[in-house]
Amino acid sequence: WDQESGVNIFINLFAAPDSFSPKKFFQISGMSKKSSSQLKEIFRILDNDQSGFIEEDELKYFLQRFECGARVLTASETKTFLAAADHDGDGKIGAFQTMVPD
Ligand SMILES: [Ca+2]
Asked: What does the entry list as the binding residues for Ca(2+) (predicted)?
């Protein structure tokens, strides 16, 4: 994705702790319209240690990966987001697509 497409709205939109909503994020970011190769690229950036999975300690930097001035997610936001995205219950996220709420 490109940094000039207005992603800095996330700083304001989710500025308050515990205000992060994955559903709202994916609606507003237009992420669902991205190609699978673009989503793979985003996944690789979120997977900071290149383990092939997004673990809890990487997920909390989710907003910062899109906008460097954004806050980290709170523990409760991170856990809720992870639980919703972790379809097989292994405690980590294996593909970007599972992060997008139905
Ligand atoms: Ca990882």
From this structure: 47, 49, 51, 53, 58, 86, 88, 90, 92
**Are residues 74 and 21 in contact, defined by beta-carbon separation less than 8 angstroms?**
no
- Ligand 1 center to residue 18 CA distance, Å? 23
CA of 78 to the centre of ligand 1 (A): 14
Name the percent of the chain in helix, strand, coil, to the closest 5: 50, 0, 50
| The pLDDT of residue 54 | 97
Phi, psi dihedrals of residue 62, rounded to the nearest 5°: -50, -55
Q: Catalogue all structural domains in the chain, each as residue range(s) with its CATH number.
A: 34-99 (1.10.238.10)
| d(CA 57, ligand 1 centre) in Å | 8
